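Researcher: Structure prediction, please.
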Amino acid sequence: MGYYGRLELKLLAQKMRSQGKSYLTIMRKLRLPKSTVSDWCHDVKLTSPQLARLYANKKSGALKGSIIAAKQKQEIRLHETKQLFLLGKKEVGSLSKRDRFIAGIAFYASEGTKSDKGCAFANSNPAIIKFMIDWFKEFSKVSQNKFRGAIWLHEGLNETKAKRYWSKLTGIRLSHFYKSYIAKDKKESKKIRKNLHEYGVFTFYVSDVTIIRRIMGWIDGTVRP
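Model: Predicted structure follows.
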């Protein structure tokens, strides 16, 4: 490239810059290194609107990059979470009868009532409710028709749908359900509920004082052998 050719290139770069073009655009259009463009154009004054537009474009690019990076981190975190979940499940393996017995004691100690009037166990996790129904049948010899159920549900959710769901899961007939408790929304509260369980919290009852007294002994025997 001759002297005049380079001078023309410089003038063109300065003209593009005066039009509000970014250094990157000039570099790509004229195939020039960044140092050359910066040297040729650093004295070119831009208007306030041009500067604002360049800043917005730069910010937009940086934002796009940050979103991509955040998405990649999220995918890595989700993958790690899944792998740890599968590892944990594998480490538990198959449960023996005694394993199920001890697990049920621990669940009841955490979520069951301790009054001497009978048994009641509440949870929103269907798998845990099903496990404990089966646990009562296996270790306390409770027949199906002795179970009673009840639902704690947020206002606005479908009570009929929730009852049918828990009835099908537990085998407890709808006629054996107590009156549901509907939690009213607090209009004045600024708290935003993030997790509304579609089927509410389910409680099953077994009215047998001999069973609760025995369970209390199991709990005591587990924590104070």
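Model: Strands lie at 119-123, 147-154, 181-183, 201-206.
Researcher: Thanks, that helps.
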